[in-house]
Amino acid sequence: xxxxxxxxIGEESPYIPLGVFKLRxxxxxxxxxxxxxxxxxxxxxxxxxxxxxMMELLGMPFEAALAIVMLNGLLYLFHHMLGDPxxxxxxxxxxxxxxxxxxxxxxxxxxxxxxxxxxxxxAFLTLFLGITKLAKKVVLHIPPALKSxxxxxxxxxxxxxxxxxxxxFDLFPISITLFVGLAFYLIFSDRFKQISQNNKSxxxxxxxxxFPIILLSVxxxxxxxxxxxxxxxxxxxxxxxGLMFSEYTILGVGLPPFTMFLNAIPMALAAxxxxxxxxxxxxxxxxxxRVDRQDEKIDYDSNRAHLIFGGRNFLMSIFGPDVVMxxxxxxxxxxxxxxxxxxxxxxxxxxFGGAGSxxxxxxxxxxxxxxxxxxxxxxxIALALTLLIQGYVSVRIGxxxxxxxxxxxxxxxxxxxxxVKGATWAFGAGIILILLIxxxxxxxYEDEVLPDSSYTVSRNEINSNDDKI
Length: 469
Prior knowledge:
Number of strands: 2
Distance between the termini: 44 Å
Order of helices and strands: EEHHHHHHHHHHHHHHHHHHHHHHH
Low-confidence stretches: 445-469
Helix content: 55-70%
Strand content: under 5%
Structural class: mainly alpha
Number of helices: 23
Shape: globular
Mean pLDDT: 84
Oligomer: single chain
């Protein structure tokens, strides 16, 4: 029975209650969205971009790394199916920090143990916050300047990763310039939204998000001389789960020593600071969507989100430790899905349909050898594309989290330190600056005129309408 058809205006999509979780199944509780599924088929290219990272860091063969990517892909489905209306992904800005931490150990069993211990400690931390329901309180009580700085810094770090010396931009300068510019125009331009309303073909392109951009890059980048032409292969991919289990998990190499878990605590705290920004982004982006789509009640619970991605990290720490980690949000694709969702009920019946169909698409793409071989040459471009879109959104949301000019100043310093020195230093510097500037009045603000604002606002007014900033 298609229960999704019975949703009334202003109600949640139907679900099966499971305690804090809300089970939703495709075709039963939400409409399957073909445009988002098609995006997922090619956007598995970004998931595949984790393979070179694992091969380089752990000395892992391609087939074993592919097995980890597939396992992580299956766990992505947990989010929308259990009630979290987001497109989950990596903890992207924390990847450079994790690489530095793991590289302090010699390649081999010790390095695998380091990755396992980190991911397990991170899992315990997030599960604790979710079980105790402290996660939601953390979200509500972190000072706005610190929230702003973390999200802003995550965005700058994502952009820096692409443009660093020897980074993706140096490898594909023309392709990245061309396709990122096109992506920003298609996704964020008001002008394109206006002209696409009266053009059926452009409206179809708008619904497909960055799917056509990835497809174009497959054929145009080789013409530009920046990638090889794809060598199409037929059949299904062949991940090596046996090798993965025997040499790269605790099932084969055993549990790490207790000291490694202790050493991993600071890194886990630093990673949590970064992923905490993704939790804030999830809530903020969905809050924007509610303005345009009042026909569906969107229930986002940060405690439930912690339980889901905490559980994912715990399972991966046992069955397939992952360098890119299990994060609460793939910001770039979440924005793409939400932007299409904003176009109305006909475009996307439910946010769960868009997020779920997309992740079913990425999982299908990972299984199909023609898809994998087609996108393999442009993996670096796909990764750069998602990083830069995430960077744009992080900066926009991060600035909007600031409630005053003082907040903006503090956030800028926090963001810069996050990029240069890492999350731990940024967090410490942020706390010191907030205490020095606000003292005991951390949550009390004088009325002031914010930048680009033509009227005086107070903290309460900003909280009631973030769009006024």
